[in-house]
Every structure is written in structure tokens, then in C-alpha cells.
Specification:
Elements: H1 3-8, E1 20-21, E2 31-33, H2 43-56, E3 60-64, H3 69-77, H4 85-99, E4 101-108, E5 114-120, E6 124-130, E7 133-140, E8 144-149, E9 154-157, H5 174-194, E10 199-203, H6 209-224, E11 240-245, H7 255-269, H8 273-276, H9 283-308, H10 311-315, E12 319-323, H11 332-344, H12 350-356, H13 379-389
Antiparallel strand pairs: 1-6, 2-6, 3-12, 4-5, 4-9, 6-7, 7-8, 10-11
């Protein structure tokens, strides 16, 4: 059974004759399409998207509660049979940044039961009503159309405005993309111009256009063809006069303008040079986490929890979470200070301290115990002892 069948085989067949347009509050058509001019083809933007996706892929998937134990057991290992969690989260983040909408669907086993989740990228999709229920109808260029009930699907969005379900496209980046493309063209043309000779000259004793064409061809063949033996020296006959070199000066965006272009891309994807070059740590990385990573983790947790658990199951504290040990991104001096201060006071156990330093937990659960230094004591217990003495 292929991936398409694993996702859509056991879902109801929604036909165009039976379905109706799902009505929105504002009358906006609930439709999502992938943008043909993909921003992912531009180097700077791809680097920015990759930086976010790489850090997001390091988040840890966790499930709380005891609902749906069979599904929980499978998801703790991997999101589906085709990806690891890091691969899933990386692709999900990339799709979200490129299209501002990312679609998560359940994967079903041979018995029609959910066995995982997968992020899909259809050419277009829309929400239709069928049998009194809203469905997301996916249109794939290779496999055709398929549908899944909206309540079983997850939709993550950015820059959501007009649609009640989907995010806006990235057309606001088009001016920046055009500037980057023009800049790259200018550099390319500048390199080409620097490696070519161009000049103009007055040729005497030629009165016919045909004669001028023949002379131009003769001069080019003798000096610039593959078989030319000029040796880097151009020799002009006395029929040439007023010889002048044409100096090409292609326009190149200056450093300040280029910085402004880059900042526009960085602001859109909430990154900077330090993030792209892996230089951020401590407070700088914490700021990046809170602005670019944590919102993704929160939205993913809420969306997937709603997908996998009913309201009743959620009321019994069943939920999905993406977590990260942010302390790992501190400087070594800050790690040492946090480790000693929190461990001494019994706030962290030895395994939690070891995790900060990227060390494995101690065997046989030895690192689960909390240790408190001898000079610390419970103030309430001390007060009670003094009261009893009186």
C-alpha cells in the first residue's frame, strides 16, 4: 500500500455532484493553492527557511495522558512509517514558511485506524461540505483528488487574514525577490564585462557599409577567435583613428542597500546573520527561540492535539507537546552556574543537569534522585520544631 492509499483509501468518496461550497463568515472562498513562483528557489530565502527548520527539527515530540495508547506508542517512535520526527518537523516548517499554510493529515493502517500523521503538499485544496460535514478536498497533480473530514486534519498558518482557515501567500516578498534577482544579474554582467574588450574607432577610406562589415569581421577573427595568434596585443592599422575603449560600469547595489534587502528577508522569516551562521547563543538564541521556534511549537501542539484527541479526551489532560531544553544553548559559564545553583537546591536532578551538558542519563535510574546541600533546610519544618520546643 502506497502513501496516498495509506492516507486516503479509507476515507469517504466525496464527489463533485454531492458536495457544496463551504460557506465562510466573510464570503471568502476557502481555497489554498501553491504559488508557482516559489520563493524557495532563491538562495538567501532558502538559507533563512533552512535555519528555522533546522532548529525546529530538534524539538522533542511528547504526548501527555493515557488516551489512545496504541496510537501514542507509534507516535512516540515516529510520526509515520516513512519519516523520523526530525524529518517531519523540518519539512513541516519549510512548507509553512514557503506557503504560509501547512496541512497535516492522519495516516491509517490496514484496519482503517489512525497510525500516524503526515504533512501533505497538494497543488491546491479547498473546503467543501458533504453530508452535512466540512471536508478538505486535496488536489494532487499526480494522484488526483481525495478528501478527509476537516475535524481529522490539522492546518497550521502564518499571516492569516482573509481566509478563516488558510494563510496568505508570500507575494509581499516579490519586490525583494526582484531586487535580489537584479543584483545577481548585475554581478554576473559585471564579471562578463570585465573579461571582454569593447572599443569604438573611426575607420578611414571606407565608404560602403559592406566594406565596414568585412573589416569588422576581419579584425574580430584575427584578434578574438579561437585560432587567433594576437598574444594579448591588439594591433591597429593606420586606417583606424580616434580609438577609444568603451568602459562598462554595471550598476551594483551598494553595501547599505544590500543590507536593507537582507534585513527585509530576515524580518519576514524572523532570523538574522547570527542564526544563519550558527553564532547565536545565550540571550540571543533565547530571543530567537521565543520569536521563531516557540510559536511554531505551540501552534503545532494545539493543532495536533485537536486532530488526535476528542474534547472528552482533552478534558482528561491528553495532549501533544513539542519541547526543547533551551539551557543547552547557554554559554558554558552560564550552564555551570545554572547547573550548580539549581541542583544544589533540589530543583533539578542529576539526569536533568547531564542533559544540559548533552550527556546521557545515568543507568538504572540513579540520576533521578534530587540532592540538596546540607546547609539548606525547610523553613516551615524549623518553625514547627521551635514551636514544639516552647
Amino acid at each position: 500500500m502506497g502513501l496516498f492509499d495509506a492516507i486516503f483509501k479509507n476515507r469517504p468518496k466525496v464527489t463533485s455532484k454531492q458536495e457544496t461550497q463551504f460557506k465562510m463568515l466573510n464570503g471568502y472562498t476557502p481555497r489554498f493553492t501553491t504559488w508557482g513562483g516559489s520563493i524557495y528557489e532563491q538562495e538567501l530565502i532558502r538559507d533563512a527557511i533552512n535555519a528555522r527548520a533546522t532548529h525546529i527539527s530538534k524539538l522533542k515530540f511528547e504526548i501527555q495522558g493515557s488516551g489512545r495508547p496504541a496510537l501514542q506508542n507509534k507516535l512516540q517512535k515516529a510520526p509515520n512509517a516513512f519519516q523520523s520526527w526530525s524529518q517531519f518537523l523540518y519539512r513541516l516548517s519549510t512548507i509553512l514558511d514557503v506557503h504560509n499554510t501547512a496541512l497535516i493529515v492522519p495516516v491509517y493502517d490496514m484496519y482503517g485506524e489512525p497510525s500516524g500523521i503526515y504533512c501533505v503538499l497538494p497543488d491546491k485544496c479547498e473546503i467543501r461540505q458533504y453530508g452535512g460535514k466540512p471536508y478538505i478536498v486535496y488536489d494532487f497533480r499526480q494522484n488526483g483528488k481525495a478528501a478527509i473530514e476537516l475535524e481529522y486534519c490539522g492546518i497550521m498558518t502564518k499571516y492569516q487574514y482573509k481566509s478563516d482557515f488558510f494563510g496568505e501567500n508570500n507575494i509581499s516578498l516579490e519586490p525583494t525577490l526582484d531586487l535580489i534577482h537584479i543584483q545577481n544579474q548585475g554581478i554576473e554582467e559585471g564579471v562578463k564585462s570585465a573579461a571582454t574588450y569593447r572599443f569604438w574607432a573611426k575607420v578611414n577610406n571606407f565608404s560602403k557599409t559592406e566594406d565596414l562589415k568585412k573589416e569588422r569581421k576581419r579584425f574580430s577573427d584575427e584578434n578574438f577567435s579561437k585560432d587567433a595568434e594576437a598574444g594579448g596585443i591588439l594591433l591597429f592599422p593606420n586606417t583606424y583613428s580616434e580609438i577609444n575603449q568603451v568602459k562598462s560600469q554595471p550598476f551594483i547595489v551598494d553595501a547599505d542597500q544590500m543590507k536593507q534587502i537582507k534585513e527585509g528577508v530576515y524580518d519576514h522569516f524572523m532570523v538574522n546573520d547570527d542564526i544563519l551562521q550558527n553564532k547565536a547563543y545565550g540571550d540571543a538564541w533565547s530571543a530567537f527561540y521565543e520569536g521563531a521556534i516557540e510559536p511554531f511549537a505551540i501552534q503545532f501542539s494545539e493543532v495536533v492535539t485537536k486532530m488526535l484527541f476528542t474534547l472528552t479526551e482533552q478534558s482528561f489532560k491528553n495532549k501533544v507537546m513539542l519541547t526543547s531544553n533551551r539551557l543547552q544553548y547557554m554559554t558554558n559559564a552560564d550552564k555551570l552556574n545554572v547547573s550548580s545553583q539549581l541542583a544544589d537546591r533540589g530543583i533539578m536532578n542529576r539526569d536533568e543537569v547531564r542533559e544540559i551538558w548533552n550527556l546521557p542519563p545515568l543507568p538504572n535510574g540513579e540520576g533521578q534522585a534530587y540532592i540538596i546541600r546540607g546547609e539548606y533546610w525547610n523553613a516551615n519544618e524549623k518553625i514547627n520544631e521551635e514551636s514544639s520546643d516552647e
